[in-house]
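Render this sequence as a predicted structure.
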Amino acid sequence: MKNLCLFLLAAVTSACGAGFTAAPAAHAGSALRAHVQKTALVYVSDHSNNLVDVFDIRGNLRYSITDGVKAPAGLFVDAQHDLWVANPGANNVLVFRRGSTTPSAALHDPNQPNDVAVCHHRTAFVADSLNLGGIAVFPPGHKNPTRRLVAQQSGQSGLEFYVACDLGGNIFATGVIGASPFPATVGWRHARESGYYLLQPTAQSESGIKATAARTLLIPTYTAPSQPALVEFTEAGTPTGRAIHTGGTDLWGDIALDAREEVVFGVDTPNDSVVAREFPGGELVRTYTNGNLIQPAGVAVDPGD
């Protein structure tokens, strides 16, 4: 709340300095919402501190979201600019309107949701990392899953850690599958169980995954031993030849893209930060962190108006 108040005070002070009259106190909430709606935002979930930090695109911490948040993980921003938070500590997925710190909806999922993606038809797909595993499917208006997408391998289902949806409504997930669990990236064509397939081993990962407008997939994986990278694959799992080294010795966790798909944001958990790099150039754009960020787990970008 302190950060929220300071942000509001700074916004009003700036407006007055530019020759405008400050809005009456009664309209403070609407002034905050209007300002946030015009600003590109970067959301970072802090798993240990039970909150989501909200940065502007330049890396300045604006405020934090804590209401109902418990051990948050993967994040997603939909076309309506709503923030979706996989919230495994409370076995749910929370939805926040842009600029709000109070959830507008909650989806119930007892299987430790670790990530969420929302397709263009507003169906939410939730990656479950415990118990039943697989992908829980929540059509619009449903607070409980109506069905599941299951990765079958050797008669065993899988545990999914991250999930993505492409423009054609195909679903992709990373995690572990099989009787002797091994890392894998899997897909379901047209979000149907009958469309299940296993991507090529070159694309296997337990890290984040994002689908692009070009119908490719971006996945953190190793291009060589101890050489963490972000690699672009076809939807069959074949490398396209485009990749960047992400630095350090560990793979990024969750990832996000800017609106033009020219900058990729990756969770760098060992360094308590989110790193933004150009893709496919690889140049460092910015690092998002603050003194209290302990265990970043998810990232999402709202491009603004």
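Summary. The helical segments are 2-17, 28-37. Residues 1-37 have pLDDT under 50 and may be disordered.
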